[in-house]
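Minutes, methods subgroup
Present: GH (chair), OT, SY

1. OT presented the first of two proteins processed in the latest run. Sequence and structure tokens recorded below as shown on screen.
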Amino acid sequence: MELDVRTLMVVFTVNVIAVALATPAIMGWRLGPAARWAVLSMGLQAGGWVCLVLSTFWRNAWQDQASSVLAMAGMSASLVALRHAVGLWSGRTTPLWPMWALTLLMTLGYGLGFAHYPWRVGLANGVLALQMVLVVVAVGQRSPETGWRWRALIGLCMVAMAVVTAWRGVLGALYTASYPYLTAPHPVNMVAALVSNLSLVLTTVALLLAYREEAERALRAQALTDDLTGLLNRRAWTERADALLAHARRHGQPLVVAMLDIDHFKRINDERGHAQGDVALRLLARLLREELRSGDLAGRYGGEEFCVLLPHTREGQALSLDQRLRHCLRLQSVQELGYTLEYSAGVAALGQHDHTLDDLLRRADEALYEAKRAGRGQVVLAPREPLSASPAPHRPQARAVPTPVLPTTP
């Protein structure tokens, strides 16, 4: 049985429409940014092919020109959307305006020069092939956050499609007699139909793989992150802190652990509502992220309590951080909450007798208790363990560090 080119185009268009409708249903309707762009790409491609098929029934009529222009715009825009989806999934987004500019210029040039067949065929297919190559470049960039399988599938499909698209453009622009119209019985159209259908299947599989990879990353992040504050949860913080502590002990490097507790948090919840309490927690968490270095570790330890681990840090540096954090918290809380938010803190530097993280946390927690007992709103340094082989019979008292009174308004 022989199939003419138009029939193959209709079959492919039906397949594209089915994929465009099925993809969001399979992924779910609550999509992330990358998945939304991928679904948009499928929708634009389906719309473009519908217009292209319709144009074959209105040859040399004004409807032919209108539907052909819309078809080229839709297909080109679908490649822009696909390029952006790949960038979002890979974590390597680049400006889209060059590809959008190609889409706009090609659409305008195609419409204005529609009467000149070699011009419009060469222009449209040349730009589409170039955009496909740009997608190949995007998926070819190495990314530690993404797997290579789905990127390889998209890359292979785009290379194959770019070849047949450029082939069509060259034939239409330079060898018009052998390729006088879109549905001409030319081998390139048969090859293009086969490549298009195969690419549709493989690209759809690739997008679903990319979406699954994104969902798995989100689940892993959710398992490690406190939903309210966005900081590490207690389990994740403890696991990473154990590794940093072991590294510091092995190499003899200084390290400090601080435990922070928001003052009078129960009163905030009782008098202002739990929603305001949540806002207070998020504010302190945000300021911690802003003030800490990239190698520092912050987590929500439970309730209104936070833990911070500072590698390569001595007590004096930890106290400087505490002063900056308090100053920022006072300023921001007055502006955002309408009242001054304070916290108490206990700081413990790694000592010779801190064999485990629990040892260090215990000393920081005792210092925190001293800060709260002494009136809150201050930081207390835990006493260092004695360096001798036999510890002193009575541990010295933790010492409170005066916290300078800073203005609450800029």
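2. SY then presented the second protein from the same run.
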Amino acid sequence: MPLTLRHMRESDIGDVVHIERRVFTNPWPTYSFHHEVSISNCSFMVALVAPPRVVPAIHRPRWRFLWRQRGNGGERVVGYGGLWVVADEGHISSIATHPDQRGNGYGELLLCAMLHQALRQSAGYAVLEVRRTNHIAQALYIKYGFAIVDTKRGYYADGEDGYLMRLDLNDAARHAITTRWGAIRERVHFTDAYTTTPHPRLNR
């Protein structure tokens, strides 16, 4: 399935909110995504999209199968992420993949893409928060060199603690990210319009 990695668009938000509500217990509201995509001057939201497909829909009165296309011009968001770049900090605010697409390496693809983007925007370090019990995500972040630097007590809405993790984007990290990005490009076939083109609104 050919994929495209690109800057998130307003027309993606419906799919993104759908995934957000399925994945997170305290999802972002719709207006937050609109702000990130259309207003924020530091946000580099990313979407991983699949091409159009035809899916069946049952016409209930006659119990006949009709066919329709869904999504953003037929495209479907299968994963997304949020990156804020403020001064020399790259803050990864969110990573999510559609539950039906887990196990394909899309979470790592999105993480590496945002780190690549942070480097392009001259960030000196990257940070993120992760639930204390989310050991799978922590293992991925540690793989990329992140380290726990603080515990945020009761950080999440349900009272769970969060870890603050940090990665210094020094020469060694840059080399590691570039190497991993190349390996991902060989493993997952996609077109990269996120790290190779300027932000359509911020033009950088």
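Chair's summary of item 2: The two ends are 29 Å apart (CA to CA).
Next meeting: continue with the remaining queue.
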